[in-house]
Design a protein that fits this description.
heterodimer; A: mainly beta; four-stranded antiparallel beta sheet; 0% helix; 50% strand; B: mainly beta; 57% strand
Chain lengths: 113, 112
């Protein structure tokens, strides 16, 4: 197992375009998290999945953001009609149990121009 | 808003010295975790301390937790240049939610 992987590592897009990121968690982990991190700040929680169920969403997750985890394995995060304020590092993490250590991917750095 | 707040925001020390970082939080917790992040990379879990624990050690790391003061500290002993990174505390509230809340981090620079 190579850990949590995220794809792509970098994405540059024009304002107004849609983007989709993928996260592959550690295979036996049924808990998956998405975070957003801007420069100089800590990660901000976006959403949480337990298996395929999305159990919690942050108010940061506007209508332009949607996340799925269709078969309880990989997850996708889509941002529609991107804005410059969406530029950030998007981090995915997975864990085996609730309130245990989370393993993070390397992140997808999004730049909206 | 972030629940965990780290102090100091930045710390610069010489190799071999000890580094202490503090974290304060606002609500009751089930556990508190510390993570490290090298520039532009993902976070690496360092240590988890549960709310009924007061101190925990892992190698050169020592974490304390004072739930009465809603605070935690991370001590890195005999620091190395490779310890240069940002350090974050993270808390899981006991409100029944699922999210882990991170602070803004302490940026540690260890000079060789």
């Amino acid at each position: 197992d190579t850990g949590v992987s995220q794809d792509p590592r970098h994405k540059i897009t024009k304002r107004g375009q849609n983007v989709t990121f993928r996260c592959d968690p550690i295979s036996e982990h049924n808990r998956l998290y998405w975070y957003r991190q801007t420069l100089g700040q800590g990660p901000e929680f976006l959403t949480y999945f337990q298996n395929e169920a999305q159990l919690e969403k942050s108010r940061l997750l506007s209508d332009r953001f949607s996340a799925e985890r269709p078969k309880g394995s990989f997850s996708t995060l889509e941002i529609q009609r991107t804005e410059q304020g969406d530029s950030a590092m998007y981090l995915c993490a997975s864990s085996l149990e609730r309130w245990t250590e989370a393993f993070f991917g390397q992140g997808t750095r999004l730049t909206v121009v | 808003s972030q629940q965990g707040e780290e102090d100091p925001q930045a710390l610069s020390i010489q190799e071999g010295e000890n580094a202490t970082m503090n974290c304060s939080y606002k609500t009751s917790i089930n556990n508190l975790q510390w993570y490290r992040q090298n520039s532009g990379r993902g976070l690496v879990h360092l240590i988890l301390i549960r709310s009924n624990e007061r101190e925990k050690h892992s190698g050169r790391l020592r974490v304390t937790l004072d739930t009465s003061k809603k605070s935690s500290s991370l001590l890195i002993t005999a620091s190395r240049a490779a310890d240069t990174a940002s350090y974050f505390c993270a808390t899981d509230g006991d409100t029944g939610g699922f999210k882990t809340i991170f602070g803004a981090g302490t940026r540690l620079f260890v000079k060789a």
